[in-house]
């Protein structure tokens, strides 16, 4: 069971005044999150124009490793980042400063090929399952037992429906006999209920400005470190 920090994601610049968008800002923010008790980091590198970029992974991973030595660093491979299958594959193939792991969304058509490319490069895989259909696709893959962990990541805003989807995904994994670590997280209104559910289930979780900017009481958090500290307190409680 760990708490992972997702420090920026695809959030726009005006989402929060402390949203880190440069490699230097991400490195500083990541160090504050580690000091607050987070075990791992999930980062969406950005180019000089502020947009998400797989080509920016090298500079960002290097900067974060300098401030957070020994902490595992992961990135996203979301298809929307490059918005082109061949550019996505080429960017991953060209990484020099490899992340420890990368998340792959099973809802995306090229997910199996991206997973295989990551394996060839020696990068761990977080298999992202957002709906039951993603779980069904995942359990049918020949390399399903070679992933680092499974992300049950629900972006449904209604809590009851989100819980139903999460439990449905877990049931598919259980029936298929999948025995990989699970990390559960929600988005915005479901973040804190899912942190508490992950703690009860003895799963990992993640929090940070990618997933939401409020604390459990609904107040806007000062920064990522404050969000992390609150989640860590729940996991240690």
TrEMBL record:
Coiled coil: none
Molecular function terms, GO-annotated: 3-keto-5-aminohexanoate cleavage activity
UniProt superkingdom: Bacteria
Cross-referenced Pfam families: BKACE
InterPro entries, per the entry: Aldolase_TIM (IPR013785), BKACE (IPR008567)
Name by which UniProt lists this protein: 3-keto-5-aminohexanoate cleavage protein
Origin species: Mesorhizobium ciceri
Lineage of the species this protein comes from: Bacteria, Pseudomonadati, Pseudomonadota, Alphaproteobacteria, Hyphomicrobiales
């Amino acid at each position: 069971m760990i708490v992972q920090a997702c420090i920026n994601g695809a959030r726009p610049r005006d989402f929060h005044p402390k949203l880190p968008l440069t490699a230097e800002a991400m490195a500083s923010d990541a160090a504050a999150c580690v000091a607050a008790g987070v075990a791992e980091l999930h980062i969406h590198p950005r180019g000089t124009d502020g947009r998400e970029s797989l080509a920016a992974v090298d500079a960002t991973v290097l900067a974060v490793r300098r401030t957070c030595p020994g902490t595992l660093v992961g990135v996203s491979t979301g298809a929307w980042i490059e918005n082109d299958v061949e550019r996505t594959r080429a960017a991953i193939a060209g990484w020099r400063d490899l992340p420890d792991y990368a998340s792959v969304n099973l809802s995306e058509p090229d997910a199996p090929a991206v997973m295989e490319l990551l394996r060839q490069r020696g990068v761990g895989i977080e298999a992202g399952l957002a709906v039951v259909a993603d779980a069904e696709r995942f359990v049918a893959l020949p390399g399903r037992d070679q992933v680092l962990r499974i992300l049950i990541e629900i972006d449904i805003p209604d809590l009851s429906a989100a819980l139903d989807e999460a439990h449905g995904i877990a049931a598919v994994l259980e029936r298929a006999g999948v025995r990989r670590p699970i990390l559960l997280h929600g988005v915005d209104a479901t973040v804190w209920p899912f942190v508490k559910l992950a703690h009860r289930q003895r799963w990992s979780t993640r929090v940070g400005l990618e997933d939401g900017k409020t604390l459990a009481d609904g107040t806007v958090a000062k920064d990522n470190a404050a969000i992390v500290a609150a989640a860590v307190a729940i996991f240690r409680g």
